[in-house]
Amino acid sequence: MNSELDLLKTFRAAAEAPSFREAAVRLGSSPQAITRAIQALESHYGELLFHRSTRQVRITAFGEDLLHQLRPALEGLDKLWRPRTKATASQIVGTVRISAPHSMGSRAVLAALDTVTQSHPGIVLDVRLSDRVADAVDEGIDVGIRVGFMRDSRFIAKKAGEMRLHIVGSPALVERIGAPAETSELSRFPLVASVDINTGRPWRWYLAGGVQVAPTAPVFIADNADMEMAGVIAGLGFAQLADYMAAPLIQSGVLQRVMEEFDPAPWGLYVYRPQRGPVSPRVRVVFDALHSAVGALPSLTQMAPSPTSALTPSKAGKR
């Protein structure tokens, strides 16, 4: 017997069996080992646990009281140690903390969490939306969504899809002032930008061939992408937006693409979790649901082209 827990389990088996020999059979041990364990416990407590004679073994009053206290404690430990099975999967409970950009909140996170809560009502979902690059390990994030590249060895990341960037404006704005055709013309047109809260400066526009352009003198600056998009819809200026935000509006004609030949290569959309051992069932459920929801985000490549997705010859002449 190599631990106090083993001694107590042996005592329970001896108390519930008709003899030490039967207890030894149930534990896969020997009657001598059972006797030594009982003697060790009696020495520890300074009390007899069994009255023993050549004909029978009978538990003492002290032993009865100890057994009464011991049973629920050991049953609780047995329950904690029991591995999950398919039968207990529906009983998955606990909190999962999620990190995602603001623009993913209503577009991917809510859809995924609706699926999770219907299947696993015992899961508590703690969602933290921020466009700041979070330190998932330090902040206790269980699952997150990230745009771009995942090269941090502290994370397990799975690519869920791709994000394309389009320069867009409202049709009314294009009708009124035309649209830029070259990067050198951008400074002559009203631009809308969002602030990178990691730097405090407007996000740069990423263009084909690795070119980056900083919006100069934007007419409207917002602190999140949805407000930036609202400014574009209102006709305040042109902006570069992610396709999972802009694609439905481009397809419906609310927004119009310009400078399409300058669209950069797509970026990856990843769902990640910190790499720290086995994945708990609740984290796996949320991870898989978020991966499916991000993969289902809208993209122009999955939509039929809209008649308003390109400039007409008359409007091209205004460039």
Automatic annotation (TrEMBL):
Q: Which keywords does the record carry?
A: DNA-binding, Transcription, Transcription regulation
Classification via Pfam families = HTH_1, LysR_substrate
- Record's keyword annotation contains Magnesium: no
Please report the stretch or stretches of sequence annotated as the HTH lysR-type domain.
Answer: 1-60
Provide the GO MF annotations for this entry: DNA binding; DNA-binding transcription factor activity
Tell whether Membrane is among the UniProt keywords.
Answer: no
Concerning its family, UniProt says: Belongs to the LysR transcriptional regulatory family.
Q: What is this protein called?
A: LysR family transcriptional regulator
